Amino acid sequence: MKVAPAAIGFGLLLAAFPLATALHRSMYAAPGQHDQPPVGYSDTPVLPGQKWRVHDIDRPVPPAVTPGENGAPPSDAVVLFDGKDLSLWASGDGDAKWLVKEGFAEVNGTGSIRTREAFGDCQLHIEWATPAQVESSSQGRGNSGVFFLGRYEIQVLDSFENRTYADGQAGAMYGQFPPLVNASRGPGQWQSYDIVFRAPRFEGDKLLQPARVTVFHNGVLVQDAQEYLGPSAHRSLPSYSPAHPSTGPIELQDHGNPVRYRNIWLRKL
Ligand code: MG
């Protein structure tokens, strides 16, 4: 009977498997512990710039976090808006007055809103929808924005087939860097930002570390650890002078268009 070369190869593989497994164990497991692989080592080199050894058995393990499903907050998040009320938000000298209904908050001309609590380095999840009814164009179409420290904007705009300046479209670091791609969904559809923001650091008036942001728009990377040139500015150059605190509110912009927000949560970093 003729045996196909593939079958011979498979037979050799089966024969070699126990040997390979035994070899693997002898290489990677401590003597006498063949049934349980080691959970770490204390005889390995120290990592450069760290106080831990390679695979250090004493290195603290990260805390367990239960992730949320479909963008819902994970177990360690600060829930800033769960669709019910804006009690954690302020506007001007008083409470936030945006319209809350059907699980979302809608811009209504009462001014921008900001968190009562100040945040610095953070991971932010936020969902937004520009009006289904398209009115106006360019910067007049579904304009809003997410500001960190009340100063650093990630633009919110209906950028679905809507020509405007590149550094002003959705996902832009407003006035500084366009998004890497346009990942916009159409008007009226819910969209998401997942943002990692790193606050700038100052020593006196001297800038030590600029602000930095990574943004996913609808799950697509649009800003890749990009550094801000300074707080967001309109038709002018940004500047890190004067210095400012490294914490501040998350602010949502009232730009006169009825943009909706829902499911806003944050993790402090
Ligand atoms: Mg804006």
What would you note in describing this structure?
The protein folds into two domains: 1-59, no CATH class; 78-268, Exo-inulinase, domain 1 (Jelly Rolls, Sandwich). Mean pLDDT is 90; it is low at 1-30. 29% of the residues are buried. It has one helix and 16 strands. Helices cover 9% and strands 28% of the residues. The longest helix has 24 residues, at 5-28. The chain has 269 residues and is mostly beta strands. It has one helix spanning 5-28, and strands at 78-81, 89-91, 94-95, 99-101, 104-106, 113-115, 122-129, 144-148, 152-156, 191-198, 201-203, 206-209, 212-217, 220-227, 251-252, 260-268. Strand 13 and strand 14 (220-227) form a beta hairpin. Strands 1, 4, 5, 7, 10, 13, 14 and 16 form an eight-stranded antiparallel beta sheet that branches. A six-stranded antiparallel beta sheet has the order 3-2-6-15-8-9, with no helix packed on it. Magnesium ion binds at residues 143-145, 155, 253, 255.
Task: Provide a short characterization of the protein structure.
The protein is mostly beta strands and 269 residues long. It has one helix and 16 strands.
What are the defining features of this structure?
1 helix; binds magnesium ion; globular; single chain; 269 residues; eight-stranded antiparallel β-sheet; Jelly Rolls; mainly beta
